[in-house]
Structures are given as structure tokens and as C-alpha cells.
């Protein structure tokens, strides 16, 4: 019995040791970025098996955009057999946010090895080598714990949290009305892109990691969502001028509905316009027979969280997103 235990112990140690040697390499130009995307989707399916939406190749243009350099901005990891097992990359999401972000992914079978720590360390070094100030990295969900532990080992702690909320049961008393004189319209594109951008900027200016949207990056984001989802925009007008909007993205394969960018210009806030757009979004996805209706909110945005929970959404604690500042 003792001999068997020793054999098992040494076999286990040999196996773990063999899985703990990973070679860090720069991304070679002849390697397709589709490999990066495949790994990202694989990890997403592991972390969020019930709701992960797999990205397609076109998302890479949004992630990395112009000026991206493979050999400079991406580090890949291989095991002893030369198998691609992980990566970390740096991007500013085509200017959508004021900070740079670290994207990363590893194969799920390596979560219990040193690879998460090596990926985090390489990402931090990547930012420092380019003198990036304000480099952020996110972890989402309880299964991301190996990355959280690695970040804490290097002395980093979350400075921001984002909540995911799912509609559990629509509150039957949640029946907001649109103020008199205002009109609601749903369309596949913004009726007026310039006004759409102005509404978003006015509503979210001063919020976490906010960067002024431009016509170009707004259109890029819309085009990307249209490729991935059945996409529409709910819009509220006052005398023909856009004063509120809400993005509606439906994923037909998994029958999920995503609500995002719910915005009302400050002058018209506190008139239940946001509540009305939220109700119309729920109705939109209910008509499509969505299995889940999902949205996210900053934990500090108490008014928004209050609105969503009043409507019947519930916070999914196991899917909380943590943001760390690493340079």
C-alpha cells in the first residue's frame, strides 16, 4: 500500500512538472490570429458554459485595430511538445476605452499549473516594455480564480467591479409609461448616428473608464454586433431629436438577449425614459422567445442597478467581473 502511494505520488509530480514547463515566444506573422480566437473561445466556454458567445474572426479588427503589431503586442505560450496553450495580448480596443487592456486565454486543462501566473507576468512585462500607463486586465467569474491569485501574488487588487444581471421574473408592476410628447422607435441602425453618439457620450461621461465615442468607432462597434447578433436599437425622440437609446443584441443559437448602452441625455433623465426603454427591450427579447435576458452594470452605478432589480433582474454573483490596474 505504501509502495503504491509512493508510485502514485511520484507519477503525479512528474505529470505536474511536465505540465509546468511552458515556453514564452513572440507571435510569428505566419501564424493565423484565428488560433488566438479559437483559444479565447475555448476558455470562454469553460468559464461561462451556460452563456458564452463565441467570437468570429471579424472581432479581431475591433480588438486590435490599426497600428497593431503581432511581434510587439502578442506573446504566445507552448508546452514541451510545441503545442499552443496560451497567449496574452495588449490592445486599446480600437480607441473605445481610454485605457489599454490585456487579452489572454489558456487551455482549461492548464488552469491548475503555473501557466496563469506566467501569462499574467508576461502581460505586465509587455505593458512595462512599452511604457503603457493605465494598463488594465479583467477576470470574470469564480473559475478565473487562478488568474486572480496570480495578480494578487504580484501585489495587485481589483479596483473596479462590474455586475452581470439576468432577468429572473419580470415584475408585473413594472409598467413605466413614456412621457407625453416623446416617441419610441426600434430600428436596425441609429436613425441619426451623430445624435446616437452624442446621447451615449452625454449619458456616460464621467463614468468608469469612459472614452468619448467617435462616429468611426461607434459604427465599427455596431457593424461588429450586426455580424454576431440579430441586432437592433431602441430609440426615444423628443421633437425629432434623439434623447435616449438602447442596444438590443439577440444570439439565436443560444437564444440569449443582451441589453447594453442604455442611455438618456442628462436633461431628460429621471422621467422614466430609461425604464421605458428597458421594458421595451424585455418585450423585444420575449417576442423572440429568449431563454435568458442579460445585461451588465457597474457596481457603483446604484441607480442603474436599482432600476434593473426593480424590473426583475437578479445579480449573478458567480459572474462578477474584476478589473485590475497593472501598470
Automatic annotation (TrEMBL):
Pfam families: Acetyltransf_1 (PF00583). It comes from the Archaea. Residues 183-327 form the N-acetyltransferase domain. The keyword Cell inner membrane does not apply. PROSITE patterns: GNAT (PS51186). The keyword Transport does not apply. Keywords: Acyltransferase, Transferase. This is N-acetyltransferase domain-containing protein. It comes from Candidatus Lokiarchaeum ossiferum.
